[in-house]
Amino acid sequence: MIVTGSTRFAGDQAEANRWHVLALCLVAGFMTLLDVSIVNVALPSIQRGLEAPPTALSWVVSGYALTFGLVLVPSGKLGDERGRSRMFIAALLAFTVSSVLAGVAVTPTWLVVARLLQGAAGGLLNPQVLGLIQQQFRGPERGKAFGLFGAVVGISTAVGPLTGGVIIQLAGEESGWRWVFLVNLPIGLLGVVFAWRFLPRDVPRGRSRSIDVVGIVLLGAGMVCLLLPLVAQESRGSTTWLLMGAAPVLLALFVVREHRYRLRGHTPLVDLRLLRIRTYAFGSTLGLLYFAGFTGIFFVLAVYFQRGVGYTALQAGLALTPFAVGSAVSSAIGGRIVPRFGRRLVLVGLVGALAGLLATDLVLATHPGANAGLLTALPLLVAGTGSGLVISPNQTVTLSEVDVAHGSTAAGVQQTGQRIGAALGTATASGLFFSRLSDAGYGSAVSTGLVASVSFVGAALLVCVAEFATDRRRSARGSSE
């Protein structure tokens, strides 16, 4: 076989482009996930700058989470059917524009609407990111790529408060919150240019198949009924919890609809046969539970450090930095070694995260006060290191047996579970925190809030153990036959 110079050049170019695509995906993922947590420390600045009422402030945070989770599955399907690169560019452009709209808002309502649009754009973008990574990489390299993405997830969530604190410190309390959003403008525009240059051209899949509109409506209504009471618990009355009763009915109707739609020869919004893939079913459940604990940590500790200890937004962000550092380092390492160890690596990470959280709770219970940030540095570093060995390895193992053609849809379903978990964890932790705060001090309240995070991480550990037990039974039956 003769390899010409032009052939080698084309191969080298394709190799280089894969890593350019990964870098672009990491930047896009960082932007959208950072905006989940960066706004928390900007709320006092927003309140002063726009004279925003508490209800509007709650929706600035919760509205983003609501629309982000709402569009994940349909957008994953659109990426699979209509082209991931095309959807990536459109979503990144929409995210950039909505960020600018948020940054120039002149009324609280304007800001809330912009945040709803920004969340929808972020939810449209993220399944394309994961689908493109799965499409571009194979074998151990895929583990490395997902490891880097897992590091981005951990860093973006953990450094959100720190980044927001730095921006507000530099730009001032009065208008600093605007730059929390406007900083996305130059990054987003550069991202669109590089996406046009480096993303692979979408390959037509033949005749365009129709999108299951009824399925989208049923799933969307079910997700609204499930997420709205969770994300709006502080700004709405208790009547929103009545929607919870409609959620399982609507989601059951969605499952029936998708099954019948496929039997009639159409392409469903979600191919429910994905759940027959053992690694995908266990990994998605594990991810939902872990994100419920993972995100609750930052809410409880951010409020405690600022209101209970008296830290500034910047100091509170610095206190959470050890978690981000541990998560970033272990995610990169975990991505490299996950092909060798598989879900066993996730098990080790869950044990480490649980141990770190328990130690953090113990330290805060016995040594509250101004030194709390320093004393929790080591436990949070341990928890973050464990977290990095959970998120990216679990992502890799969960999607390892999924057909690449359905990669964005599968990633969208998985991320929807993570968003549900994040909303559930934040609602539970904040509810326990504030209910305890009314009866006792901040020290008791933070300990109670951390119990919620510990419980969810413990539940994720049990799911991981259950998967190993299932594997052992399957192996035993196989050997006996």
Describe this structure in words.
This protein is mainly α and about 475 residues long. Helices cover about 80% and strands about 0% of the residues. It contains 18 helices and no strands. Helix 12 packs antiparallel against helix 16 (about 375-400).
Short structural summary:
The protein has 481 residues and is mainly alpha-helical. The protein contains 18 helices and no strands.
Task: Point out poorly predicted stretches.
Answer: 1-12
Share in β-strands? under 5%
Distance between the termini: 46 Å
Number of strands: 0
Shape: globular
Q: What percent of the residues sit in helical stretches (DSSP H or I)?
A: over 70%
Q: What Rg is obtained from the alpha carbons, in whole angstroms?
A: 22 Å
Sheet of most strands:
none
Q: What is the structural class?
A: mainly alpha
Order of helices and strands: HHHHHHHHHHHHHHHHHH
What is the subunit arrangement here? single chain
Enumerate how many helices there are, as a single number.
Answer: 18
* Average pLDDT score: 81
Characteristic key phrases:
481 residues, mainly alpha, disordered N terminus
Helix-strand layout with pairing:
Blueprint: H1 5-37, H2 43-50, H3 54-70, H4 72-82, H5 84-103, H6 108-136, H7 139-171, H8 176-182, H9 184-198, H10 213-231, H11 243-263, H12 278-308, H13 313-341, H14 343-366, H15 372-375, H16 377-399, H17 407-437, H18 442-480
Helix pairs in contact: 1-6, 1-7, 1-9, 3-6, 3-10, 3-17, 4-5, 4-6, 4-17, 5-6, 5-8, 5-9, 6-17, 7-8, 7-13, 7-16, 10-11, 10-17, 12-13, 12-16, 12-17, 12-18, 13-16, 14-16, 14-18, 17-18
